[in-house]
Amino acid sequence: VSLEHAKVDLPHSLWAATAEPAVESNPLKSQIDCDVAIVGCGFTGLRAGLALAEAGQTVVLLDSGEPGWGASGRNGGSVNPLLPFHSPEQASRLIGPVFGPRLSRLSLTSADEVFDLIDKFKINCHPVRTGWIRTAHCRSARRLFEAQCRQWIDIGAEIEILEKPELDSMLGSTAFAMGAIIPRGGNIQPLSFARGLAQAAIKAGAQIYSQTRIVDLFREKPEWVVKSSQGMVKAQKVILGTNGYTDNLFPGLAQSVVPVISVQVATKPLADDISAAILPGGQTFSDTRRTIFYGRRDHMGRFLLGSHGTTETSDDHRDFDRIKKEAKRLFPQLSETDWEFQWGGRAAV
Ligand SMILES: Cc1cc2nc3c(=O)[nH]c(=O)nc-3n(C[C@H](O)[C@H](O)[C@H](O)COP(=O)(O)OP(=O)(O)OC[C@H]3O[C@@H](n4cnc5c(N)ncnc54)[C@H](O)[C@@H]3O)c2cc1C
Question: The FAD dependent oxidoreductase domain covers which part of the protein (predicted)?
Answer without folding.
Answer: 35-345
